[in-house]
């Protein structure tokens, strides 16, 4: 459980970069997510990895981010459908985003809605057993830079299906 100090910090700074706060506070990124105000996050089990990815594959253009200590990789486009085989969740397309994800390493799926850089944001974070973020998938934006309403609805429906309801 995150410390009250971290909870207070995240209540005052809900748009802080999760990985930066984790590094500064010497905690896992999952602890930072869990320290967000309850209305801003929900977490479901990692066993829902394939179902979540299949749902996200139907959302259209989103942004997938992989944030490491050395780089932040961003891909904007549709997430391809995938299937489990040979120990991986395989993204099944020859070009664009493709690859092999270690789905069994996923220990949690966080759904985060919070302000970020002066705008509303919503993302799904796939969290590993060490509390690190494998990658995040952000709800896309429309021409006016607002969150796409259709994707936000899908995001919330997916969260309702696989994540615990926020505490009151």
List strands and helices in order, with pairings.
Layout lengths: L3 H9 L5 H8 L3 H7 L5 E5 L3 H8 L4 E7 L4 E7 L3 E4 L2 E4 L7 E3 L4 E11 L2 E10 L4 E6 L10 H14 L6
Antiparallel strand pairs: 1-7, 2-3, 2-9, 4-5, 5-6, 7-8, 8-9
Helix pairs in contact: 2-3
Structural summary, described in words:
With 168 residues, the protein is of the alpha+beta class. Helices cover 27% and strands 34% of the residues. It contains five helices and nine strands. A six-stranded antiparallel β-sheet has the order 1-7-8-9-2-3, sandwiched between helices. The longest helix is centred in the last third of the chain and has 14 residues, at 149-162. The two termini are 17 Å apart. The relative contact order is 0.19. The model has no long low-confidence stretch (mean pLDDT 92).
